[in-house]
Design goal:
6 helices, Alpha/beta knot, about 180 residues, about 20% strand, globular
Length: about 180
C-alpha cells in the first residue's frame, strides 16, 4: 500500500466547503478549557462538514494560536459563534427546532450506538468541560442525553475524542457517510 499524497485526496477548497451541504448537526462546546480540544473539535467538524460549532462560557474563540495549532485552519471554514450562557444557547436552539442532547453519563441516557438519527430533524449535541462535564442545568433542559458506553477503569473520555465519536455516529446514522 502506498500512502496518498495530499493532491490525491480530492479535498475541497474553502469556497466549495462554504457552498457545500452540511451535516445537520450543531456542536455546542460548554466551558471547555483546553484550546487544543477546541481546535480538535473544529478539525473534526471540518472533516464531516458539521453545520456549525457554538462555543459557550469559558470556551476560547478563534482567532487564537493554540486553537489553530490543532484546528489547522478548520476554524476559518467551519461556521461558529459564541454565546456566554450555554442554557440560553440550548433554549435558542430548541426554539429554532433543534433536538438538543447532552453527551453525558446520566440516568436514562441513550447509548450512542442505540441513538436513532431521524431524517429531516435538526440536532445539536452539547460537549462539556474536561473535569465537570456538561453543566447539570444544561442537562436538565436538553431533550435527552447520549452516553458512550465504556468498559475500562476510567469513567470518561477526552472531550475531543468524544466529539469525534459522536460526530462520526451522527454522520453515519444520518446517511452522510456510508458504512
Amino acid at each position: 500500500m502506498k500512502k496518498k499524497l495530499v493532491t490525491e485526496m480530492g479535498r475541497i477548497c474553502r469556497e466549495e466547503f462554504a457552498a457545500s451541504d452540511k451535516l445537520p448537526l450543531t456542536v455546542v462546546v460548554d466551558n471547555v478549557r483546553s484550546l487544543h480540544n477546541v481546535g480538535s473539535i473544529f478539525r473534526t467538524s471540518d472533516a464531516f462538514r458539521v453545520e456549525r460549532v457554538l462555543l459557550c462560557g469559558i470556551t476560547a474563540t478563534p482567532p487564537h494560536a493554540e486553537i489553530h495549532k490543532t484546528a489547522l485552519g478548520a476554524e476559518d471554514v467551519v461556521e461558529w459563534s459564541y454565546m456566554n450562557d450555554t442554557v440560553e444557547a440550548v433554549r435558542e436552539l430548541q426554539s429554532a427546532g433543534y433536538e438538543v442532547y447532552a453527551i453525558e453519563q446520566v440516568e436514562e441516557s441513550i447509548a450512542l450506538q442505540d441513538f436513532i438519527v431521524e431524517s429531516g430533524k435538526k440536532y445539536a449535541v452539547v460537549l462539556g468541560n474536561e473535569v465537570k462535564g456538561v453543566q447539570q442545568q444544561v442537562v436538565d433542559i436538553c431533550n435527552g442525553s447520549i452516553e458512550i458506553p465504556q468498559f475500562g477503569t476510567k469513567h470518561s473520555l477526552n472531550v475531543s475524542v468524544t466529539a469525534g465519536m459522536v460526530i462520526w455516529e451522527f454522520a453515519c446514522k444520518s446517511g452522510w457517510v456510508k458504512r
